[in-house]
Amino acid sequence: MDIKVTTLDGKASGKVSVSEAIFGLEPRADLLARMVRYQQAARRQGTHAVKNRSDIDRTGAKMYRQKGTGRARHSTSKAPQFRGGGRAFGPTPRDHSFRMPKKVRALALRHALSAKAAADSIVVIDEVKAKAPKTSELRGKLTKLGLADALVIGGAELDRNFALAARNIPHVDVLPVQGINVYDILRRDKLVLSKAAVEALEERFK
Question: Rounded to 5 degrees, what are φ and ψ at 54?
């Protein structure tokens, strides 16, 4: 399949041929959802923690004698039923990530690219470069191209001026091609690929 190539100034710059095996699949929602869950779980810090009864700085002595008071039997005021006591069954630091086969992750990325292609939400730009790190100038160009909410994928190395100009624009993310991922593709309306990114993706999935 062919995708039209444009410049940042909105001028036509030919076409690029892309593989049906990467951009022409029937998108699978279950696979995409599974991949997003995998990515979000890996991003969780897992540093949540509470104090259990062994962490409370109180005496461990019995509160009052066992019998004769007419009150319930208790041991220490560290117990979780008391105000200021330790918490029972609270969260502890742990790793929330889980494993997913490498081939499944690669397939999910291809389905995410195909989903954008099927929705006509892929824009190919000849070069992701800017002459100067001017946010207002780049915002104007992106607005003319209808890219108010977009993920921009450059080549192996991002152009410094473009990256600096884009980082202050809301709802516009810029990543090198090796950082492309399913979650960032799906969270933005448009996917903007440079010609170098398209070539890198074609080479990656050969």
Answer: -75, -15
